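User: Let's play a game. I give you a shape written as tokens, and you guess the letters that built it. Ready? Here's round one.
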């Protein structure tokens, strides 16, 4: 016998994870008791609190029929509840012993149980777990009592906020439908009636209502199945009693009993009738039943069209077309309630919903609403399990990189998701603001995925801070945010034309951003009448009377209507009359009352009726904001947790405040003397009007003092709990109401420092006005007596304030602030620091002249006197001083210099770095002088943060001004190494930018520069330096255009940049990028173009003029507007001198020379001489450049030489140079130059009347222009050379057919100075069963669907499981067969499901509503109807009317984006039977079903084949007598099939190369034909020359070149054909000595042909590293060739796919061979997507493929593996996902030895 302190334990009655029950004796009085001990010890504080709460509720409802609670014991290890033991046992135990109750006993028990339950309800408690187990009876005394209040709630209506998961509390076998979470309504006392009905059913039948024990089936039954009558199981149950039980079990709460009065009245009537006779006569039930509790209306009313619009918007977002939706309307109109519908809408796509609310009192906290939304997303993600958390963590780290630390600093809650992070790199204020904006935008975008779309709702935007509005603009304009629905709500009656929201929307509108606007209007009289009837259960006609009055008073405002109904009820103007058992009101009395005029007055009047302590508490809560935490409220209120909870609970009961966590129940003040200080539950006011009403009760003259008290209390608590950093923005605004009243002085100085630090944080967030307020408050906090003594603090605050004013656009106030700063500055260094700030801000706003003045003045204050306009002597002197300081030191030595420590030197370094960009634009000699001095400063004082900038500028000067690019490159590399050593990403990016823009291309491959510029651009964006990022993007765009990168890619990147909000701040740069875009659109032949021409004189800065001039020059030249091109070339030539060092200098020289050559033939003689001089000048310049970097500039140089030779009449020279230019352009990958060279060669040959050769060059030009993406240019060239299209070559005629479908207008592209542009528009209790049910659902679905391959049975199983999962009564499966849809299976609850044999056309079937099915099939989206019989346009449908259809759920079945059919589900018992969770379940199950249907189809076809095979085997068996012969034949057949599979795979791989081979053959064969024809003409000319005895040398040389070309292209074609034949041979061949290296080379060539000819071409670089020592191997070469080709093809595909991602590296393969001495290794490595670890074991499985449908057979690797295994070798794979994959083939050394012969 066990003992506990003071108790003897006799027997254990029950045990679970939550609690254990013992029958015991209390020793002090020998009282028999029941001990209920917690399942865990005191460490589980929550469980202890729950037990104490249960004790409190039990004490609250104690009385007759309730098990008495004797006490709460605190044992040493855990708490225990002491219950009376009256010798009872549970009714469930009684049933187990004796079976069902007789009717008389049942009625006796039922009346007493109902009375006890009514007693509980009268005390405002919902039990939530009524069942036979919790009803205790003493069989001897027949005493009966209810027990177990662990799940009870002390509220009249339990409402779970929509952003929390629905909680399933209770025991599922007895749970009301609304408790399951599958119906969209709250839980009230009527849920206990349903459980009571289930209990009564069990007492009468000894069976549960629904016999299944499976959670999912039980859930389905409660929602969808009609319960059986108790008489069906126990015929002795009277019909009338069965009717009472079934009424209790009604699905809709309104159809159950509404009071225990009515229930007891009917039960007692049964008792009386039974006493009179043996039978129980029929009588109408429920006559005495009337609802006596006031029930406020729930849900939306009159918003069907708005919900439909919201649903459509989300559907578009889920499809990848994200958008902005703005909802407007006055306060209380239902904007937030409408958006809450998103929780239903998003479930079908497993989408996220995140909400944030802007607070009128907390506008100083940057991104407050966004932080709320991110906190919701973090909690949702963490609650979805480790797998989802890991996935999101990885995605965020991929998207943010090093900036993950910025996110954690801004939103500390994200630390739980991404882990601890190092502090972010500090940046200047503007860059820091931009960086944070970008980080938050990318974070939200990371949550918005195709698999999980995101709906982001920002409420009350009229109170949004500027940082939040800027982020909203960023998200709204970013086209990459395809799966993000932005929803904003604002009160259009509470913001003015000058509010920040107005400006933000105007900026979006100006930028061309569109959005959908939804304005909510007041409800009509009918909707108000429905709300009245819902609350009072009166008839519609009578309800209309009261509704008319309420509608008049409220104007149809939904929140006002609800508040007015509650107000009337609380004033006893709307009351329940117990005598008449109905709700009564007196309209005359109501009208005579002084009702509040509006909702605000209504809320004030309602709050005045609250207890004083609750009013005081709500006033404090109103100071905290709309949303507040219990801990902060307790601290600010200045009371204990218990006192705070008691005051707050009244507000909860009155539904003025709503909980945001289920733990709120632990704050119930009747829970005993619990002090829940460790529970920080969040709450929010039910509406902002409630908060405003509470705030209005604070007298105006006391508000500052109240805020100050709140702020100081929160500050002290935050310091004590070390949470100041994350709470500071919520604390300091309170102190700002009266900072002068704070004391003592030490506290004021402490708070001044805190305001300074917090203001800097606000400034870096971009909330400049908030920063200004914080800095101003910090200034006031410095005690007047200490102002002189605290000069440094005042100076720092004033400096920060001035900068923030400037950044906020308060220029006059900032100018005054700078004057104050200069007056306050006491040292030259302080004055210089002010000037440095002014220089930085001026540079930021493109005021370059002002910036230089400020910077030079600041340098003079620091002892560095630089002239504004230095002469050559000053520059030479500074250069000599620098050379002396360098003293022959290598650049690597500069890397080892100590860090700069002298403050003035640091400031000087920052100053020179700040004014270097303005100097480049306006004073380049000053830039040279200042750069030399900056480098010397670092040599003298050590390296500073800005020394990398000094070194790279020095490299620029050496390269661009002193023509020493090699030395310049050394300093550029030094700059990057130093920035890396200093771990400064921003300086790294600036070094990258300057190095790649001005230095590297003169001696190094310019493609390296493209990679550097791309990386610099990414870092600059991440770092928030928008200005330099814009310049970097401009340089990068022009560089990529010069290299001939695909135009469509350039357009996409251009649009992405233009869509960034900050690009609009730099109008000069934006204009240049728009001109760039227009030129590219013209080249593509686009129909929609901006109407814009760009006069160069309108641009402000020379560099922008140079870029704009170049793009106009290229545009005119390529579109054959040659005179305009020449004019722009000459005009922009002078501008080029202002941008030394840029790559575009050479591009300009190139097009300048080409333009001169183009206009040369029609020029005058004098003009021709000028043009020749221009061409010679540009040729000489390009020749020097090509000598240093031939890869970059030889294509330019050679083509200019060719054009020069052409205009001079040097035909042989021109011909040779054209060929060399084409070859050089191809070698360098300059697609555009290749196209131009081929075009000009075509023109050259046409001028010489050589049409065959011209045609050959023309097709090459067209191909190159097409690869480039210049469809408009293709059209122009084709039209111009149309005679060649129709006269020569089938290839050219194919181009003619291509162009017929383009729709390009030649008239738009010709005949004007600028193209004519057009514009067009374009079974035990549990807290939550949700997880159990989800797991059960998925497990059952997996077993029932995935395991069934027999199609008819699969269809039937699918309907069954879908009905069960959703609570449907009826289900239909429709699938597509050929071109029509057929009903494959249908089922109904109770009769099961069965396949239709034969199947029936859907159009001829009466199994479903055709209107609904056709709508779903046409839209491809799901349809959810709460009540089809009342919703248009379905209510009049004949099927709906005939079958009384109510709830409908119809979902399409999609697989690989193909529509396979649909699932149609009905529940006609109740409305709203299906909700968002059911949509989600059907969405997941239909996806699994689609796969299973496809598998079943395959299995069906396999079965047909199998039956055919069996028939054949039977025939063979009858014919053959020898089993051995049969097996032999089967073996031979198997071998044949295997060979066929191998052949088919080989042919499949060959087919994938066919297009490439065909294309590659056309070009050399055309050249062979054309050069041959030309050679015949030359022979004839040669014959004439000989006859005339002229010199034949030039003709012989040209003939020799033609013949060599014929040979070259013939060999090229032969090589292609031979490789193709070797791969295509069907015979397996004999083993022979084979060169592995040769096989690799052949395979590489063949694959490259195919890759280049794809449309679009795949530019995949293949590097080969072949070991010459690899010996020959004895094998069948065709087999190994097949293996190599398969590996190469897979690698090319993977590398190319990854390259399509933004910022991805160029696709590249490495193929190598190696002889280890014992084996031959062949490796194929790509830099593609890699192979996920989960699929590596399946790679060599037949028919397994990772490619999309239609792009892979799944046999290649399997067959390759078998080939290598047959050779005794091995094949393995190594991979890192997202980085690379490497396949290794290892052949044994035995293959290198000759095989032994017979």
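Assistant: Ready! My guess for every position:
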């Amino acid at each position: 016998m066990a003992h506990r302190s003071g108790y003897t334990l006799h027997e254990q009655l029950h045990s679970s994870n939550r609690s254990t029950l013992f029958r015991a004796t209390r020793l002090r009085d020998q009282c028999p008791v029941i001990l209920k001990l917690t399942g865990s010890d005191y460490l589980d504080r929550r469980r202890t609190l729950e037990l104490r709460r249960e004790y409190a509720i039990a004490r609250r409802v104690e009385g007759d029929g309730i098990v008495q609670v004797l006490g709460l014991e605190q044992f040493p290890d855990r708490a225990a509840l002491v219950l009376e033991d009256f010798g009872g046992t549970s009714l469930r135990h009684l049933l187990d012993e004796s079976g069902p109750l007789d009717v008389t006993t049942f009625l006796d028990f039922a009346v007493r149980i109902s009375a006890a339950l009514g007693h509980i309800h009268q005390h405002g408690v919902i039990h939530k777990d009524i069942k036979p187990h919790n009803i205790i009876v003493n069989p001897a005394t027949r005493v009966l009592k209810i027990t177990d209040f662990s799940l009870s709630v002390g509220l009249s209506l339990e409402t779970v906020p929509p952003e929390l998961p629905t909680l399933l509390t209770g025991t599922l076998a007895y749970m009301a439908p609304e408790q399951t979470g599958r119906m969209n309504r709250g839980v009230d006392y009527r849920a206990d009636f349903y459980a009571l009905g289930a209990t009564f059913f069990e007492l009468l039948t000894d069976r549960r209502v629904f016999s299944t024990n499976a959670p999912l089936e039980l859930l389905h039954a409660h929602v969808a199945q009609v319960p059986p009558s108790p008489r069906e199981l126990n015929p002795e149950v009277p019909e009338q009693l069965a009717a009472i039980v079934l009424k209790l079990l009604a699905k809709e709460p309104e159809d159950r009993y509404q009071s225990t009065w009515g229930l007891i009245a009917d039960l007692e009537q049964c008792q009386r009738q039974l006493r009179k006779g043996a039978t129980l006569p029929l009588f109408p039930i429920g006559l005495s039943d009337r609802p006596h509790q006031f029930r406020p209306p729930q849900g939306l009313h009159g918003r069907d069209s708005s919900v439909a619009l919201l649903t459509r918007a989300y559907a578009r977002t889920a499809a990848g077309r994200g958008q902005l939706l703005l909802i407007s309307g006055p306060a209380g109109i239902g904007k937030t309630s409408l958006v809450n519908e998103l929780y239903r809408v998003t479930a079908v796509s497993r989408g996220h919903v995140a909400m944030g609310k802007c607070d009128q009192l907390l506008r100083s906290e940057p991104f407050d609403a966004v932080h709320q939304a991110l906190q919701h997303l973090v909690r949702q993600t963490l609650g979805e399990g480790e797998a989802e958390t890991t996935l999101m963590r990885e995605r965020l780290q991929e998207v943010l990189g090093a900036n993950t630390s910025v996110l954690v600093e801004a939103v500390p809650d994200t630390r739980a998701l991404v882990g601890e992070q190092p502090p972010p790199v500090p940046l200047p204020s503007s860059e820091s603001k931009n960086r944070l904006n970008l980080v938050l935008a990318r974070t939200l975008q990371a949550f918005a995925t195709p698999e999980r779309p995101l709906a982001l709702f920002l409420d009350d935007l009229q109170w949004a801070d500027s940082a939040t509005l800027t982020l909203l603009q960023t998200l709204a304009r970013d086209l990459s945010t395809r799966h993000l629905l932005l929803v904003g709500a604002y009160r259009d009656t509470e913001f003015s034309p000058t509010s920040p929201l107005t400006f933000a929307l105007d900026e979006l509108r100006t930028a061309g951003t569109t959005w959908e606007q939804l304005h909510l209007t007041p409800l009509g009289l009918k909707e108000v009448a429905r709300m009245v009837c819902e609350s009072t259960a009166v008839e519609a006609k009578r309800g209309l009377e009261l509704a008319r009055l309420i509608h008049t008073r409220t104007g149809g405002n939904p929140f006002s209507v609800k508040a007015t109904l509650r107000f009337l009820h609380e004033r006893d103007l709307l009351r329940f009359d117990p005598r008449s058992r109905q709700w009564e009101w007196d309209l005359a009395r109501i009208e005579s009352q002084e009702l509040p005029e509006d909702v605000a007055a209504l809320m004030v009047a309602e709050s005045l009726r609250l207890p004083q302590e609750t009013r005081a508490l709500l006033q404090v809560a109103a100071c905290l904001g709309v949303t507040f935490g219990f801990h902060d409220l307790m601290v600010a209120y200045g009371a204990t947790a218990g006192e705070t909870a008691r005051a707050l609970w009244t507000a909860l009961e009155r539904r003025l405040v709503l909980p945001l966590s289920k733990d709120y129940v632990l704050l119930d003040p009747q829970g005993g003397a619990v002090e829940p200080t460790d529970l920080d539950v969040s709450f929010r006011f039910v509406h902002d009007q409630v908060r405003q009403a509470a705030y209005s009760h604070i007298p105006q003259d006391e508000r500052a003092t109240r805020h100050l008290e709140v702020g100081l209390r929160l500050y002290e608590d935050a310091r004590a709990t070390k949470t100041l950093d994350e709470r500071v923005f919520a604390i300091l605004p309170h102190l700002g109401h009266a900072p002068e009243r704070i004391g003592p002085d030490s506290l004021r100085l402490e708070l001044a420092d805190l305001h300074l630090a917090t203001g800097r944080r606000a400034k870096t967030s971009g909330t400049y006005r908030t920063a200004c307020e914080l800095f101003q408050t910090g200034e006031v906090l410095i005690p007047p007596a200490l102002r002189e003594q605290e000069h440094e603090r005042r100076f720092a605050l004033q400096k920060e304030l001035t900068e923030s004013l400037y950044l906020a656009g308060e220029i006059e106030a900032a100018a005054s602030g700078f004057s104050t700063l200069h007056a306050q500055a006491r040292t030259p260094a302080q004055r210089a620091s002010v000037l440095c700030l002014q220089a930085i801000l001026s540079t930021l706003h493109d005021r370059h002249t002002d910036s230089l003045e400020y910077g030079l003045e600041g340098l003079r204050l620091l002892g560095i006197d630089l002239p504004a306009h230095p002469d050559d002597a000053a520059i030479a002197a500074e250069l000599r001083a620098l050379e002396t300081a360098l003293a022959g030191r290598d650049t690597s030595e500069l890397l080892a210099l100590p860090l700069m420590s002298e403050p003035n030197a640091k400031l000087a370094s920052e100053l020179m770095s700040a004014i270097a960009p303005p100097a480049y634009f306006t004073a380049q000699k000053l830039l040279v002088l200042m750069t030399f001095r900056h480098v010397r400063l670092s040599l003298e004082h050590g390296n500073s943060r800005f020394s990398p900038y000094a070194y790279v500028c020095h490299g620029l000067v050496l390269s661009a001004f002193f023509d020493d690019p090699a030395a310049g490159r050394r300093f550029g590399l030094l700059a990057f190494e130093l920035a890396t050593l200093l771990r400064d990403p921003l300086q790294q990016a600036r070094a990258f930018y300057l190095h790649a823009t001005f230095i590297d291309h003169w001696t190094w491959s310019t493609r390296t520069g493209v990679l550097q510029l791309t990386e610099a651009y990414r870092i600059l964006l991440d770092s928030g330096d928008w200005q330099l990022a814009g310049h970097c993007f401009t340089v990068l765009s022009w560089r990529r255009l010069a290299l001939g990168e695909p135009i469509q890619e350039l357009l996409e990147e251009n649009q992405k940049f233009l869509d960034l909000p900050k690009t609009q701040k730099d109008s000069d740069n934006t204009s240049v990028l728009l001109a760039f875009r227009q030129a590219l659109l013209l080249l593509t032949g686009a129909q929609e173009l901006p109407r814009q021409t760009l006069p160069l004189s309108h641009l402000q800065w020379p560099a922008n003029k140079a870029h704009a001039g170049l793009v106009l020059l290229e545009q005119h030249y390529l579109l054959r507007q040659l005179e305009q091109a020449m004019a722009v070339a000459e005009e922009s030539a002078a501008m080029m001198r202002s941008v030394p060092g840029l790559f575009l200098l050479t591009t300009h020289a190139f097009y300048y020379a080409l333009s001169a050559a183009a206009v040369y033939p029609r020029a005058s003689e004098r003009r021709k001489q000028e043009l020749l001089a221009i061409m010679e000048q540009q040729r000489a310049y390009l020749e020097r450049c090509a000598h240093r970097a031939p890869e970059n500039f030889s294509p330019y140089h050679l083509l200019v030489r060719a054009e020069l030779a052409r205009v001079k009449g040097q035909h042989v020279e021109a011909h040779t140079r054209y060929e060399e230019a084409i070859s050089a352009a191809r070698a360098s990958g300059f697609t555009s130059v290749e196209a131009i060279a081929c075009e000009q060669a075509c023109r050259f040959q046409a001028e010489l009347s050589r049409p065959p050769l011209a045609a050959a060059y023309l097709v090459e030009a067209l191909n190159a222009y097409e690869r480039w993406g210049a469809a408009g240019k293709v059209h122009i060239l084709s039209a111009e050379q149309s005679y060649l299209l129709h006269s020569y070559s089938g290839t050219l005629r194919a181009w003619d057919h291509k162009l017929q479908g383009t729709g390009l207008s030649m008239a738009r592209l010709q005949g004007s100075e600028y193209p004519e542009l057009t514009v067009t528009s374009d079974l035990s209790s549990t807290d939550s069963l949700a997880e159990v049910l989800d797991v059960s659902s998925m497990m059952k679905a997996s077993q029932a669907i995935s395991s069934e391959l027999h199609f008819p049975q699969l269809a039937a199983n699918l309907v069954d499981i879908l009905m069960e999962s959703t609570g449907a009564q009826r289900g239909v499966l429709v699938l597509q067969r050929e071109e029509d849809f057929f009903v494959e299976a249908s089922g109904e609850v109770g009769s099961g499901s069965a396949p239709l044999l034969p199947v029936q056309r859907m159009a001829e079937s009466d199994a479903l509503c055709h209107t609904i099915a056709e709508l779903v099939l046409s839209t491809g989206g799901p349809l959810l109807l709460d009540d089809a019989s009342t919703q248009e346009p379905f209510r009049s449908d004949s099927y709906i009317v005939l079958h009384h259809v109510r709830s409908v759920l119809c979902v399409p079945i999609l697989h690989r984006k193909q529509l396979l059919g649909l699932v149609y589900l009905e529940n006609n018992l109740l409305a709203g039977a299906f909700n968002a969770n059911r949509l989600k379940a059907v969405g997941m199950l239909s996806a699994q079903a689609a796969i299973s249907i496809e598998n079943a189809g395959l299995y069906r076809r396999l079965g047909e084949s199998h039956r055919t095979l069996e028939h054949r085997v039977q025939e063979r068996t009858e014919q053959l007598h020898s089993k051995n012969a049969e097996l032999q034949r089967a073996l031979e057949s198997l071998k044949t099939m295997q060979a066929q599979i191998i052949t088919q795979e080989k042919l499949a791989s060959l087919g994938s190369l066919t297009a490439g081979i065909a294309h590659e053959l056309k070009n050399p064969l055309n050249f062979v034909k054309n050069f041959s024809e030309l050679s015949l003409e030359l022979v004839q000319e040669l014959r004439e020359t000989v006859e005339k005895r002229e010199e034949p040398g030039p003709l012989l040389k040209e003939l020799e070149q033609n013949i060599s070309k014929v040979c070259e292209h013939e060999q090229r074609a032969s090589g292609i054909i031979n490789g193709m034949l070797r791969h295509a041979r069907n015979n397996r061949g004999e083993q022979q000595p084979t060169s592995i290296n040769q096989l690799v080379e052949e395979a590489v060539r063949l694959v490259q042909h195919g890759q280049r000819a794809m449309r679009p071409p795949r530019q995949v670089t293949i590097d080969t590293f072949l070991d010459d020592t690899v010996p020959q191997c004895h094998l069948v070469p065709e087999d190994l060739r097949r293996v190599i080709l398969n590996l190469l093809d897979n690698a090319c595909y993977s590398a190319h796919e990854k390259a399509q991602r933004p910022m991805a590296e160029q696709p590249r393969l490495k193929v190598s061979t190696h002889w280890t001495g014992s084996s031959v290794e062949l490796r194929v490595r790509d830099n593609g997507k890699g192979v996920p670890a989960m699929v590596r074991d399946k790679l060599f499985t037949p028919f397994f493929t990772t490619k999309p449908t239609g792009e892979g057979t799944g046999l290649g690797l399997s067959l390759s593996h078998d080939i290598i295994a047959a050779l005794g070798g091995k094949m393995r794979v190594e991979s890192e996902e997202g980085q690379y994959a490497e396949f290794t083939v290892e052949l044994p050394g035995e293959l290198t030895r000759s095989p032994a012969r017979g």
